[in-house]
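pinned: reference chain
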Amino acid sequence: MKTFYAIATLALLSTSASAEGWDVVERCTYSKFFGRMCTTSYRDAPARDLAQEQEDEKARRALIEKWEAFCKPVRTYDNEGVGRLAYAKKGCEFGRSE
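pinned: its structure tokens
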């Protein structure tokens, strides 16, 4: 019976969970009596909606373009060669876009 469990465990561990469209979830707890105990579970990854991803990318790109048009970031270098961004409006370093 132990051999069966060893083979089953080896078979489960040898499969690539993330490459097959699975999500691996590991939860660990710590107890002063039992030490660290972790459980690993596998679940199907949600189906990707490519049309929605394209819409999200367009919306994200539109926000970036709006911010760039408002803030007009310019890269400058200080005397130690560290790159810095300078903005046309105050508050742009915090995400202000209007």
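why pinned: DSSP finds two helices and four strands in the chain. The beta strands are 22-31, 35-44, 74-77, 83-86.
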